[in-house]
Amino acid sequence: MLYGSLRERSYSKLLTLEAARLLEAMGAEVRIFDPLDLPQPDAVPDSHPRVAALREAAAWSEGMVWCSPERHGAMTGIMKSMIDWIPLSVGAVRPTQGKTLALMQVCGGSQSFNAVNQMRILGRWMRMITIPNQSSVAKAFLEFDEAGRMKPSAYYDRVVDVMEELVKFTWLTRDVSPYLVDRYSERKESADELSRRVNQKGI
Predict the structure, then answer these.
(1) What is the CA 3 to chain-centroid distance, rounded?
(2) Which one of 24, 132, 200, 203 has the fewest beta carbons within 10 angstroms of its own beta carbon?
(3) What CATH number is given to the structural domain containing 190?
């Protein structure tokens, strides 16, 4: 699970924690990545401990949840930086291909879908099985109590729906995702040929 804010009282983090409780109640094992101290993409080698921790978590997961605030009509730079650190390919292995993905966002004002729409494009680009349902919480500062728990509302019900759908899609595709993303054009290439093509030094 990824959230895209470093604020002390981060509503994207609170929403992620709420979703994590739901997933655990549904039988899922959950890991949440804290973006604090994650360097900007390409500023350090990918062997940096924080980068390595993010990549290990991404490789471990069967499904992901991305949750971003909307800032200036878009996902935050923190959210995009985390996603940019997750490689499309490591040698001939694609760490995100065939994994399920659920998307959520929090809004400071009226409801918007800019951040989830952008993340949906990224999920498709990374060959993830992005579920149809999604969550956008308007005026998020009104939707959580002092303890950081989400108040009962239609927004909360939608979060339950999204997490339930993520679990269902993960179960349904768990054993068949390699088949679903298998491509003729890639079957023509050997692992070595693919590695040389995607890791070329120059054009």
Answers:
(1) 8
(2) 203
(3) 3.40.50.360
52 neighbors 85 (Cβ within 8 angstroms): no
86/196: higher pLDDT: 86
Phi and psi dihedrals of 125, rounded to 5? -60, -35
What is the residue-wise DSSP string for 116-142?
Answer: HHHHHHHHHHTT-EEEEEEEEETTGGG
- 193 assigned to some structural domain: yes
Considering its fold, how many domains does the chain have in total? 1
pLDDT digits (tens, 9 = 90+) for 127-164: 999 999 999 999 999 999 999 999 999 999 999 999 99
Burial class (CB in 10 A: 0-12, 13-18, 19+), 12: buried
Q: Is residue 203 part of a domain?
A: no
Q: pLDDT > 70: what percent of the chain?
A: 93
Cα–Cα distance, 63 to 61 (Å, whole number): 5
User: pLDDT tens-digit profile of 51-72?
Assistant: 999 999 999 999 999 999 999 9
